[in-house]
Design a protein that fits this description.
alpha/beta, 2 domains, 5-stranded parallel sheet
């Protein structure tokens, strides 16, 4: 089988070498498309491939239509909203992610952003400490649990909510279950967002929730920009001059936010959550192993679409 590793934001050289070793060792051919400038280059490269490994690259309906032999796409990472699942399912293409492989990197970034905002972005003014503060974790999956563990180790109180987890599972994970989403925001000095972008969550975090936060509250988003109601965020920051927002996914209105609110708003220059050598390697090798296993045994354990 022919496997294409298509990455505008490339894996490390060591990760690419590891991916090739796994797949060629399983009898597959590997091609690499890196740093491509136009989506058309990606579309042209899939004509004869049986499998694709991507990072933040967009597997659109056009990509899938251009790949008649395609059987599987693996997104090296947790989120998969950059893949057209409907088109993939219609073409009987299995789509997988690699849950947990980037989790520690994202969790460390979330904690780092809390400290960065608490210390006024390391400017020479008086900041605050996070010890003794409460962090509310919105979605208590792989990343959320690690954020909770690291926050607790730093002396923070941890609350969490997850619509897919019963309260006892949240307790087992080391957090106090929030009674509701409104309760989470109202009782947390920091809120760390880890929800996916779905029709139910897009623009779900806006003025009403954000302004429920206590005085000096900091909202930290290492998930997806689409879950934020950007107009509502701007109004919340305007009406509540004590609130702050830090994000790993720059909002469309970032320039406006920075102009109005200065150091109360921070966005990483480019999505950084999975940008560690360890996460890079873990996710890439996991993707390669999942493809090798799929072709060898039909294993679809991490499939995220249905057909």
């Amino acid at each position: 089988m022919k496997v294409l590793v298509a990455t505008q934001k490339p894996f490390s050289a060591a990760a690419v070498s590891g991916i090739k070793n796994i797949l060629t060792g399983a009898g597959h051919q590997v091609e690499v498309l890196e740093n491509y400038a136009e989506q058309a280059e990606f579309v042209a490269a899939v004509a004869d491939v049986d499998a694709i490994i991507i990072r933040s690259d967009k597997v659109t309906a056009e990509v899938i239509a251009a790949a008649p032999k395609l059987k599987i796409v693996v997104r090296a990472g947790a989120g998969y909203d950059n893949v057209d699942l409907q088109a993939a399912s219609a073409a009987k293409v299995v789509v997988m992610n690699t849950p947990g492989q980037n989790a520690n990197a994202v969790a460390e970034l979330a904690i780092g952003m809390m400290i960065y905002m608490a210390r006024t972005q390391f400017t020479p003014s008086t900041g605050s400490e996070i010890m003794g503060k409460t962090v509310g974790i919105q979605a208590f999956g792989n990343v959320g649990r690690l954020v909770g563990q690291k926050a607790a180790a730093l002396g923070m109180k941890v609350k969490a909510i997850d619509p897919f987890l019963p309260a006892e599972k949240i307790v087992e994970g080391g957090a106090v279950p929030a009674e509701s989403l409104e309760d989470l925001y109202a009782t947390s000095n920091y809120v760390s967002i880890h929800i996916p972008a779905t029709p139910q969550t897009v623009r779900s975090i806006g003025y009403d929730l954000i302004t429920k936060m206590p005085k000096g509250g900091v909202l930290v988003n290492t998930a997806r920009k689409e879950v934020i109601d950007e107009a509502g965020l701007a109004k919340a920051l305007e009406d509540r001059t004590d609130l702050k927002y830090a994000t790993d996914v720059a909002p469309d209105n970032l320039a406006e936010l920075k102009e109005k609110f200065g150091a109360r708003v921070y966005a990483t220059p480019k999505k950084m959550g999975a940008q560690t050598a360890e996460a890079n390697m873990n996710a890439g090798l996991a993707a390669a192993n999942q493809i090798a296993d799929f072709f060898a045994t039909g294993n679809t354990r991490f499939q995220v679409n249905k057909f």
